[in-house]
Amino acid sequence: IKLSRPAVLNDKVQLACLPPRGEVLPNHDPCYVTGWGTLYTGGPMPDILQQALLPVVDYAHCSQPDWWGSTVKQSMVCAGGDIKAGCNGDSGGPLNCPAADGRWYVHGVASFVSAWGCNTLQKPTVFT
């Protein structure tokens, strides 16, 4: 990204790193999605950028037949899928995860949610 002027880093604006290639996040690791998608299935678009805590759902769970099954690949990251999730319009938004070194890492971008609704049980948001 080329900015017209330098970004001013502060408590609201910070840099994020890319994780080491092949890093796998553990189940329940806390990550955050941000986006401008609808507030709920069929709902309005927000006036301000939204953020939600989405714990990681590991591949072993996310790929079970009653979850995403074979739709999800090992290279994808699943997160949320309970009360909070990404929604329509959040695609392309980052999945930011804090690490022990104090840095934030972007572990993927929002790719899809369930066609049955944004907060469908056992259908976490999928990031690539």
UniProtKB/TrEMBL annotation:
SUPFAM superfamilies assigned:
Trypsin-like serine proteases
Entry-linked CDD domains: Tryp_SPc
Sorted keywords for this record are: Disulfide bond, Hydrolase, Protease, Serine protease, Signal, Zymogen
- Coiled-coil ranges from the UniProt annotation: none
Which is a Gene Ontology cellular component entry for this protein?
extracellular space
Q: Which Pfam families match?
A: Trypsin
Which biological process terms from the Gene Ontology are attached to this UniProt entry? proteolysis
- Residues covered by the Peptidase S1 domain: 1-128
A GO molecular-function descriptor: serine-type endopeptidase activity
Question: Know the name of this protein?
Answer: Proproteinase E-like
Gene source species: Notechis scutatus
Q: Which gene encodes it?
A: LOC113432413
